[in-house]
Here is the input.
Amino acid sequence: MTRLRKILIVVAVLAGSAVLIPMVHHYQLKAAVSRYRAELRARGEPTELAQVLPPPVNPERNGIEIFLKAAPLVAGDKTFLRSNPIPAMKMVAPGKAMVCARQPLIRDPGEYGFTNSWVDAKVAVDQNQEALTLLRQIVNRPELDFHIRYEQGFYDGNLFTNLQLVALRQASLHLKSAAVNDLHQGHTDSAVENVRASLALANAMQSERLEITELVRIAIASIAQGATWEILQATNLTDAELSVLQSDWARLDFLKGHRDALNMEDIVGDLEVARWRSSNREMHKLIDLFGSVSKTLGVEDDRESTMFQRLKLSGQIFQWRYWWSYTDELRSLKGQMALLEATRSAGTSGAFLPAFKQQNARLDELGIGQLNDELDSVFSGRLDFHSMLSESIQLLGKSFRKVTVAECSKQMTVTAIALKRFQMQHGNFPEKLSELAPEFLAAVPSDVVDGQPVRYRRNADGNYLLYSIGENDQDDGGNPALESGTQSSSFQWQNPKALDWVWPQPASAAEIKLYYDEQAAKAGASPMPGMPSLGIPPGAAPVVAP
Here is the structure.
């Protein structure tokens, strides 16, 4: 054999290897993903869109037409309610909140610096009565079918527009403003109806089974929770009003909503990945969308890409489609299971914090916990082809904490309503929470943080202390202060750095005045001269207590 022939054979072998080895590697990676999917199917995990679609909505319960009539009315509102909603349960000190409905003025002396009168508030609410009346009808039509075509994927341009997420949140803010205005005038019945409408929106959204809708549901419930707290401070309530309000709160199930959303996100995500792998064009659609968002955020300029950048991008897309995507997909599938297993563990044990820690430990093992999440990549203008799928798992994993806070808030709100009902019937609060069952509660609610009964004690002054142990996972005796060495500009009762999550009690006149003075100082203003004990300027309208 001649030397040239040997050289040609070596070259042919090397060329064949250069083609064959990557091809074999491609099929190995693809097979690994297929094997894991087969394992999931064998374990009974949903792997097809039909398995996770919500059931059809009964037309007689579908309130979508009502909401779509109300939404443009809320969006077109020209009153101050759109920019400055009437506040509710405004935290002024750790564990203490202002009863906003009892204040002579509607004020924010700090960041927003507005002052509105209750006369103006009534006019604004009255101007929104058509929308509010429509929204209250959703209590009797408590499902919303937005006709989302999940098979088109998350990046179909109409998905989030169809969901009306901004309109839903704004509607809840209008309902809260109306409820607090009602309380100021002494109308607890209409205040309860407005809060019930807001809760109906939160409950109705659960059928959409997307993480973004779950986050908006949590936001709506938080808005309704402030208004509910205000209602509980009224003195002319009836048991019937509180009973229906308690039932509406009890129907909220954020853990199930989160679990359903994770399953839907997984299946629709699979459809997206298959679409992106199908051609360079489909992948370019994602990159263009990613780039347009980054430019809007100001993290990417408008300069045209160079020839080198375009060639580099084409090479990255090619490698992603045939190799990188499979490694990342397998890791993200395992990460998805870590999220689902955590929700199941929380549902079984009732203890969310251990499940959350278990989830994060598993994500760290998979190398997902150290990644940027999807939003971080958008904000930085960076798309990492090696981890773009796993980054979405990192983002979804953070939602579990919000679910924990929302479920804890729900349990505390239900308990507080039951306590109020007990007091109205017996003249004082119970010595133990077990006295609430079975008349006012089926059973003593649990603290979702650790699964133990929610903490409670009746105080010597006739009031009570109700709290969760919070994220530090230890009982600090109902101390709402921040952990030593930490700072926060917020008195939020479920602050991540609070020792315990304490159900707020009404702030005293002195605490309200101190809050207003401190906010004025932070805004660079001086405390109002002659300010009386409530921290309100002289000559203000008298309080109209419920």
